[in-house]
Structure formats: C-alpha cells, structure tokens
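[User]
If only I could read backbone structure tokens as easily as an amino acid sequence. I have put the entry right below:
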Amino acid sequence: MSIILNIGMNHESAPVELRECLASDPMHTKRALAMMRDSQVIKEALFLSTCNRVEALVVAEAREKGSEVVKKIMAEIANLSVESLSDHLYEHEGMGAVRHIFRVASSLDSMVIGEPQILGQIKAAYAEASKEKTSGVIINRLMHRAFHVAKRVRTETGISEAAVSISYAAVELAKKIFNKLEGKKALLIGAGEMAELAARHFLNNGVSSIAVANRTLGRAVELAEQFGATPLSLDEIPYQLAEVDIVLSSTASTEIVITRDMVKGCLRKRRSRPLFLIDIAVPRDIDPRVNDLNNVYLFDIDDLKGVIETNMEQRRREATKAERIIEEEVVKFDKWLKTLAVVPTIISLREKAESIIQNELNRSSALLASLSPSQKQAVITLSRSIADKILNDPILFLKGRSGRPTLPTYLDITKRLFNLDGEGQKED
C-alpha cells in the first residue's frame, strides 16, 4: 500500500549554508520533480524550496525505498553526500506527514508564527508539481485540504493579527495614537529596508502622503518613486516637522538627526496637533528629550520590541487553537484516504451493473423498438435507478469498513458475491 512521506530541512534543523545548496537555484525544483517522476518507487511528488525550508512531499510504494530515493535526489542536487545531509533532515510519514504539511501551510512551523508568505510558496510549489505532472489523486487532495486548513486557521484564530515586525508594530502604534491613519502624512528618514516596509504598511493603512528624507538624495528618489512619495534632503526635515503627523527614522547615523530644538521649533505652527515619532535606529536618531514636549509622542526600538513580544505571546496562544483545527482536519483526511482502498471495488460494482443494463437492453431491443425516444429513455433511467438502489447498501457497507482490519475480507466477499473478477461461480 502507498504511503505519504515528507522529508526535508528547515531553519531549525539545518544551517543556512546547507539550505542554500538546495534552494539557491530555481531550477532545482524542476530537476527534483523530474528525478522523482522518473523513479519507479515514487508515484506522486511535490518539492517546496524557500530560504528557510526545503521539503519533498511524496507518495511512495514503500517507506524505506521512498525515503532512500528522496534523500539521494536531494544529495545529488545539493552536490553533497547523503550522509552529510541526513543529520539535518526530518522525516514524517502517513498522518504525521499530513499533520506537518497542514502546520507548515498554517504558518505554525515558520520562523515567525503566523507569517503569510509560506502559504503562497506552497501554492507555487503545487502549481509547479501540477505543471510537471508529478501530483496525483492523493497530493491533489492533500494540497487542497492544506489550503482549506490554512484558511480556517487564519479566519478562526487571531494568529496573524498581532504585529511581529518592527515596521508593522510602528504602524500599529501610530494607529493607537491617531485611532485611524486615513488622511495622515508621514515622513520617513532613511531609505533602507525598514523604511520600505514601513512605507508599504502606512499606505495599506490609509496614510495619504509620504515624504522620504535621506542623506543620499538619489536613494530617497528611488524609494519615493516606488511609493509615489516626495524625496527630500536631510536639511528639509525641520520644515517637514510642522507639516507631517508621523515620523519614522531608521538611519545609520552616529549622531542625532532630530534634536529637541527642531521639534520644539515646529510646535507653534502645528497648533496642538499631535506628532508621533518612531525611532528604530541604533544608535538613536531622535533626541529622547522630545518626549517631554506637549503633544509629542516618541517611541524607540525597545518600546516596539515590547509590543512585538506581547504580540508573539498572543500568537502563541492562538496557535493552540490552530493546532486543534489541524487535528480535526488530519482525522478527516485520514478517513478520506482510507476510503481509497474500497474505490476499485465500488468502480467494479458500478461497471458490472452498467454492463448488465446494456446487455439486457440489447436483448430487449426488439421489444423496445415500438417505444418513442422519450419512452426508451424512461426505461433506461428506470433500469439504472433500480441498479443504483440495489448497489447502494453494499457500497455504504464497504465505505463504513474503510480502515478496519477486516476490510480485505469484506472486499474479497464482495468480489466473490458479484463475481467481479469474471471467473464464474466456484464452490470452495
């Protein structure tokens, strides 16, 4: 009987230099799928390759042989020995493999619990497997159930709600200060990755305009063009402080970029409008004394880390709910998988019933010749309806025995009773 296997490595089991050997080249996925497709042992396959995870999900004829083939393929692609890989690989089989892929799709096995990127990566891996014709009945069903589980986890728990990145936590804090960000103006100081992420989060939450100030104006122009923002030089910051509502600073400067006097000098023009300052630079960009000024709110990276840790704890609590959902879905998939054993017999029953119907209709063709087309169709429909009702109880009985140790006996009896093997009636 076929078995589901999951063999791979992730950020916890293998160092990045080892994962890179398998994930660095996009063609590795196509190559891995081709090699598994050509194997006599592997019937279905999917290959997932990301910066934090490399996994093969296969349906194999036998556990040991399937595992051996997958490991050899991974070693060949990575240009390493099987022995050097083995210590860093984890292996799941049967419902353990199903549970694992459900947890991965639901982002319970990610470096950051609840991150949404992994589901998209799994969908891309499945699309590639479908394209390369390595997926089949079991992996097709398993992937669609994994997508369903991920959706349930996302909608029935709060696992993705709490901010766990510095830039996103900054946006969440800004929302607490202003209640909503629609119509607000933001100033980003620095044009690195943090500023880019913050810009995206701000725009997604309704900020109406963004200005980008950077020591190198060319980089400010690049980031501004990406988000439809206004590029500025650092010298223009004091004037902008009177106009904007939110300032996020993330430069590599070793000196203070926004002084207390700068902020104090803009307060009269602001007319008591609150100013929210977020300093995520190390060393700090903003003079901590600005927090003493009226209607000025300054948060540094330590404040944000506190928010993130609180939110991570919330995600961990929500993960407990997600694990319960996954267990429910594993049980459902297990039941479906076990019904596959009775499918060939059910198909044979229905094919035999259809064959009998066709033979009897042919034998009665002379009697049916006088009937109109609609009357003939009524006779055919009646014949099939009677056959379906006769077969319904045996089919339900077989499905109900799926997964039980006695199933092979019942399948054998059914084949004998209905002579499905076409050997005629024999007496034992």
Q: What stands out?
A: The chain has 17 helices and ten strands. The chain has three domains: 3-156, 166-308, 342-417. The chain has a mean pLDDT of 90. The CA atoms of residues 162 and 310 lie 9 Å apart.
